[in-house]
Each structure stands twice: as structure tokens, then as C-alpha cells.
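Worked example 3 (structure in, sequence out).
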């Protein structure tokens, strides 16, 4: 006998439209480019015409690869937040990241952020043995 589906999430797909960034009256722009010298630029902006207030946001990011294992990045936005970052690949699957975020409006005040991260990435191989003796491997 078949079990009838639960109706608890009946309107979930329709409600997700409002949570997934499909806002009406919202204008978004993302532009990415790479220069001949290897510097990557990314620019993003958004404006919401429905709110009636000026909530336009704009930011620019630049990333430069020092070598195959290291890169630096810098970003600034129209709220005067300035961010800097350094990423070093220690070995395949292991990265060390240093970052700082400074509020340009209040340099002498507190509230600036510093970050240190160790990113670990692992490749797990799963093997499934079916009844006929074949093995299936997923990367």
C-alpha cells in the first residue's frame, strides 16, 4: 500500500521565491574580468527601488596570484569597509588564510576584524559492492 505524501511543505516552492534573491524592484550587477598581468577584478552592485530610501550598494574586489600557491586580495565598498586577505596553499587540500576588515569611517575606533583560517579538504572514495561482484567507486 502506498503512503500518501505529507502536505506540510505544499507551499514551500512558492515561498522559496522570496528567499532566493528573486526580489522585484531589486537590480543586481556582477562583473568579473582578468587583466593580462593576472590581476582578477570583480565588481558587484545592487539597488532596491521599492524601499524608497537610498540603499544602493557597490563594491570592488581585486585578487592577484603571487605564485601557484599564494594569492592576495583586497576589497572596498561604498560603506567604507576595506578588506585584505592572503591565502597560502600549504599542500594539496590544506590552505592557510589570513584576513582583515577595517571600517574606513572610524579608523581610530574599535570594531575591526582579523581572521585566521585553516581550510582542510579531503577526498573520500566510497566503494559499493553489488550482489553481482562489481564495485562502483565515487570520487
Amino acid at each position: 500500500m502506498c503512503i500518501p505524501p505529507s502536505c506540510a511543505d505544499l507551499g514551500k516552492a512558492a515561498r522559496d521565491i522570496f528567499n532566493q534573491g528573486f526580489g522585484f524592484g531589486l537590480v543586481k550587477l556582477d562583473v568579473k574580468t582578468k587583466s593580462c598581468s593576472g590581476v582578477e577584478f570583480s565588481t558587484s552592485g545592487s539597488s532596491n527601488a521599492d524601499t524608497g530610501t537610498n540603499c544602493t550598494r557597490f563594491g570592488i574586489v581585486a585578487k592577484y596570484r603571487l605564485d601557484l600557491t599564494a594569492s592576495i586580495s583586497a576589497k572596498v565598498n561604498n560603506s567604507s569597509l576595506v578588506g585584505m586577505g592572503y591565502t597560502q596553499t600549504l599542500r594539496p587540500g590544506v590552505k592557510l588564510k589570513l584576513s582583515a576588515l577595517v571600517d574606513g569611517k572610524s579608523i581610530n575606533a574599535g570594531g575591526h576584524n582579523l581572521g585566521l583560517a585553516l581550510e582542510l579538504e579531503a577526498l573520500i572514495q566510497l566503494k559499493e559492492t553489488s550482489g553481482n561482484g562489481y564495485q562502483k567507486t565515487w570520487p
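Notes: The mean pLDDT is 79. Residues 12-19 form the longest helix (8 residues).
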